[in-house]
């Protein structure tokens, strides 16, 4: 008499298959949502001439980008805390809806002022997307899996670095610049359908205790600080009364925010985020990484066009080569931190960043393009090995109810570093160019631009004589190398910060896999 097969194993296999399929759809939802924030930072730049031609207001142009960065950065920690109170899904859905609303009204802008206001609305939504997607990656996947997931999410930024400028150029040339915002609507609609259909949360709902005063002070203090960094050296000199006043107000607001957060029952930015060495080390290393990122992000395309002699599209691809190494290194970092721990994997990434910076500094004037591209790939790999273990590591030290605020602080630190980098490297680059213009030979003075603002357009305009062209190209070469010297110093400090971070991360209950020495 034959014994019927036990149905239990077959049922378990079927349940496991359904679970994997569900997680694939959730990953598609997270990537689609992240695509909104990632592509928006690259697609707008290529359509700027058409936007200015249509709306005017060239003097306000920088705020089209600055207001987006400002709104996005200051709201990240607030959204992180709200996701701990109300759950990730509602915060992500509301943030995506805010972003899509901002996209729709940006497309309908009738003046530069209206576009700036609506870009701010987009930034408010982007802050929720960036904070919540990364938190969900920590909720839904094991420690071993999170590196691969962060690799997939990083690949979204890499794809956006290539697709965004291309789409922006196509829309601006063959349709209308307004489509650079309208294209977000179908992507966002797909993301919302996937989130609504496949993302289901189960958590213990708490009676909400919202730190309204703390949230307002965090927003105001961070916003004032970043505003001062964005305007300093641009709208007014660094040592001017305006600059001093803005930073003084920021200092007072930061002090008030610290006092308010100490007294709050559910603080937006709890003090323990900076008192615990693991969290403080991870957050400070992300400030350093954000600082280092801004120099190539902002000035490498100028170097590629003015020194290497490439067009705008090719220069964009030189910068985008960073996005080859980053997702790859993020994906493989999981194997490393499972064996040597989070801290030591991040240390390997920081050292790789230092090596890449040194490699760029070793390039002579007139070097071919391929070493620059290779150097960018190595730099991206360093960022991937640094950022992923630090993010996964700090997420693993807390439970669900604190993961949002920890992730928000980590992401906020990186974007704060980028704002600091924009100010510091802008001052270095402009100062070097001014010195070259002031010390130019008399015979070239009449051919060279009188203002730093005109250097790039004149250098790329092919209207200069050979000697004047070489002088300007050398000035931009020297200015870029001075940036990398600054990056070298920051990277060295970043290595010290990582070394001061504890080697062992005390993992919270519920994290299923423990790295060897993490």
Helix coverage percent of residues? over 70%
Percent strand: under 5%
Structural class by SSE content: mainly alpha
Q: Give the C-level CATH assignment of the largest domain.
A: Mainly Alpha
Count the helices. How many?
A: 20
Count of spatially separate domains:
3
Mean pLDDT: 83
**CATH topology name of the largest domain:** Growth Hormone, Chain: A
Question: What Rg do the Cα atoms give?
Answer: 24 Å
If classified by CATH, what would the architecture of the largest domain be? Up-down Bundle
Shape: globular
For the biggest sheet, the summary is: none
Q: Which regions are unreliable across 5 or more consecutive residues at pLDDT < 50? A: 513-518
List keywords for this structure.
518 residues; mainly alpha; Growth Hormone, Chain: A; 3 domains; 78% helix
Give the helix/strand layout.
Blueprint (H helix, E strand, L loop, with lengths): L6 H37 L4 H8 L6 H25 L1 H20 L4 H29 L2 H32 L4 H4 L1 H15 L13 H20 L9 H23 L8 H4 L1 H30 L5 H9 L1 H19 L1 H20 L7 H28 L3 H39 L3 H4 L9 H5 L6 H35 L18
Helix pairs in contact: 1-5, 1-6, 1-8, 3-4, 3-5, 3-9, 3-17, 4-5, 4-8, 5-17, 6-13, 6-14, 6-16, 9-10, 9-17, 12-13, 12-16, 12-17, 12-20, 14-15, 14-16, 15-16, 15-20, 16-17, 17-20
């Amino acid at each position: 008499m034959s014994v019927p097969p036990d149905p239990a194993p077959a049922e378990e296999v079927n349940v496991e298959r359904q679970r994997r399929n569900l997680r694939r759809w959730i990953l598609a939802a997270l990537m689609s949502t992240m695509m909104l924030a990632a592509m928006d930072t690259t697609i707008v730049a290529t359509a700027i001439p058409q936007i200015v031609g249509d709306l005017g207001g060239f003097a306000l142009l920088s705020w089209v980008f600055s207001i987006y960065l400002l709104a996005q950065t200051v709201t990240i920690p607030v959204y992180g805390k709200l996701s701990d109170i109300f759950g990730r899904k509602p915060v992500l859905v509301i943030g995506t809806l805010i972003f899509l609303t901002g996209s729709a009204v940006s497309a309908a802008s009738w003046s530069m002022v209206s576009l700036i206001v609506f870009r701010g609305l987009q930034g408010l939504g982007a802050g929720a997307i960036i904070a919540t997607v990364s938190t969900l990656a920590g909720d839904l996947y094991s420690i071993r899996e999170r590196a691969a997931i962060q690799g997939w999410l990083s690949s979204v930024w890499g794809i956006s670095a290539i697709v965004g400028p291309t789409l922006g150029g196509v829309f601006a040339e063959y349709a209308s610049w307004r489509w650079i915002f309208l294209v977000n609507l179908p992507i966002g609609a797909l993301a919302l359908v996937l989130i609504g259909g496949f993302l289901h949360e189960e958590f213990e709902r708490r009676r909400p205790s919202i730190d309204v005063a703390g949230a307002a002070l965090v927003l105001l203090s961070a916003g004032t600080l970043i505003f001062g960094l964005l305007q300093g050296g641009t709208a007014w000199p660094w040592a001017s009364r305006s600059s001093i006043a803005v930073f003084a107000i920021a200092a007072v607001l930061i002090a008030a925010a610290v006092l308010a957060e100490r007294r709050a029952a559910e603080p937006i930015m709890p003090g323990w985020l900076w008192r615990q060495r693991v969290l403080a080390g991870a957050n400070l290393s992300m400030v350093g990484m954000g600082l280092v990122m801004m120099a190539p992000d902002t000035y490498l395309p100028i170097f590629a066009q003015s020194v290497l002699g490439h067009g705008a599209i090719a220069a964009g691809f030189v910068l985008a080569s960073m996005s080859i190494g980053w997702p790859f290194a993020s994906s493989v970092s999981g194997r490393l931190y499972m064996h040597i721990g989070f801290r030591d994997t991040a240390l390997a990434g920081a050292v790789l960043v230092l090596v890449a910076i040194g490699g760029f500094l070793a390039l002579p004037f007139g070097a071919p393009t391929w070493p620059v591209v290779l150097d960018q790939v190595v730099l991206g790999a360093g960022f991937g090995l640094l950022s992923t273990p630090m993010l996964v590591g700090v997420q693993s030290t807390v439970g669900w109810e604190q993961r949002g605020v920890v992730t928000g602080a980590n992401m906020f630190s990186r974007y704060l570093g980028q704002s600091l980098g924009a100010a510091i490297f802008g001052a270095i680059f402009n100062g070097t160019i001014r010195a070259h213009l002031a010390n130019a030979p008399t015979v070239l003075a009449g051919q060279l631009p009188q203002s730093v603002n005109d250097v790039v357009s004149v250098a790329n305009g092919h209207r200069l004589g050979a000697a004047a062209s070489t002088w300007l190209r050398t000035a931009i070469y020297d200015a870029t190398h001075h940036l990398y010297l600054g990056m070298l110093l920051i990277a060295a400090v970043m290595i010290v910060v990582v070394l001061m971070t504890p080697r062992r991360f005390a993992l919270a209950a519920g994290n299923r896999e423990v790295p060897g020495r993490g």
